[in-house]
Amino acid sequence: MHVVRVRKTGYVDKAGRVRDYESAYLRRTYRDGGKVKNETVANLSVLPPHVIDWIDAGLKGVQLVPAQTAASVARSLPHGHVAAVWAQARALGLPALLGPAGRHRDLALALIVSRVVEPASKLATLGSWADSTLGVDLDVAGAGTDEVYAAMDWLTGRQDTIERTLAERHLAPEANPAGMALFDLSSSWVEGRCCPLAARGYSRDGKKGKLQIEYGLLTDPAGRPVAVRVFAGNTADPTAFIEAVDTVRERFGLGQLVMVGDRGMITSARIEALRALGGIGWLTALRAPAIAKLATEDGPLQLTLFDQQDLAEISHPDYPGERLIACRNPLLATERARKRQELLTATEALLDPITTAVREGRLAGADAIGLRVGKVINKFKMAKHLDVTITDASLTVTRKQDQIDAEAALDGIYVLRTSVPADQLDPPGVVVAYKNLAHLERDLRTIKVDDLDLRPIRHRLEDRVRAHVLICMLAAYLVWHLRRAWAPLTYTDEHPPDRDNPVAPATRSPQAKAKASRHRDTHDQPLHNFRGLLTHLATLTRNDLCYGDTEITVPTLTDPTPTQRRAFDLINQPIPLTLK
Q1: Are residues 324 and 336 in the same domain?
Q2: 303 and 442 share a domain?
Q3: Cβ(543)–Cβ(73) under 8 Å?
């Protein structure tokens, strides 16, 4: 028995229309003597096409079963996001970097990967491991808190070895011919009161009254995280900087390096200490009072320097053996003037009700008036520009216009100081090197807010806090490479234009502007931000399929979307079925 399909084309019906017909017949083939004959058993043409296909397949020996019993999905787990981060970690040699294979390493790797794909508290992270292939493939889905804390302690003990390897990889002369390293300090608030590192200090998170810790991040000139140090919450920037220098010299063995930091980090006192050590250079900026001193009538910093150019190299006896690079950014000058005017106006608006109350007699007495004024006058840091006269019955507030004009004359001007000689780094190169601090600032935003959400600190023991920050630093190392690789899939400018003038603001390339306006990449696929791309990758699931009545499961990936497939292509990795 078999099915025969007969197709007739070009048939003209009575109305003159050309029609095509297809008929299906069930036929029996048999022998009559020595001849093969066919017999039409039934005309199947009236049946739906899929029913005809079933009959044809059944007669050919295909075993047909109901769809609901053919295969079932025993379990489906998000896979693409953890697989991509794991593949990048393996490509960077992160497992070997952490230490020898074992339970502690698997748990530490799971914590780092989890911090990238879904940052959360340790307890929340433990609960999420069973909900993705990360927990299943690394066999950490059933891990308890004691195991995780033991892995964190193990990782802390490996910190010096890990950072020394990263320093050899990114700060050694072969990888870092410029011989520069970037360092900056940040802080995060602490929940609770029992951590010995928690202290009150200047909060960069705006959490006034909260205990905090501080941590300093060391990177290469491109912003790759290399090392991190945790300090008590009341540690001053210069103190943290000296420890970073000691780490570079003693633990990494890099005696010839230029440390780049902002004006609050590398102070004159720290520079004197660097001179005494020898070998370590510096590149930083002057504070406003020092710039004002250079701009006096007989000083080297005169506005005529910027008549034809926006940067110039100057010198001064107060900075022996150093180079001073003066720069003026007109756009920055305009912005500072606008901001100063707004803050002055806002401060005067806060003082107006007090002035009115004094004038109308509702507020009297110099002490009472002074208390009211003191509460608001420096809210916007503008008290220095206001002249306040208080008597028992009057309050007069006027602007110190001469002082304001003197400060405005220096708007947009900044001066860089460095020990790097001119034959190693020309003036534009000094400006570029200092502006590379933007890469470090981006890393700190990644760690604190954008991607890894280090805040707040919930651990109580010092080593656990250090382990938590180290995990975030290693996760930031992964994110740095993933952001670079996935730039074509995000709004990141893949090829930022070179600046002829390093003082001028950075601009985006035409290609970046085009894809931002279209919200699509060059392959006409939707663009994502970094977090959105990871969310999209998570829709690539691994399904455990059961066929028939067997208990055997077959792991199968869903078909990747073009964006998912390209994400793995960009990191030069195939889409793995399993992580290990």
Answers
A1: no
A2: yes
A3: yes
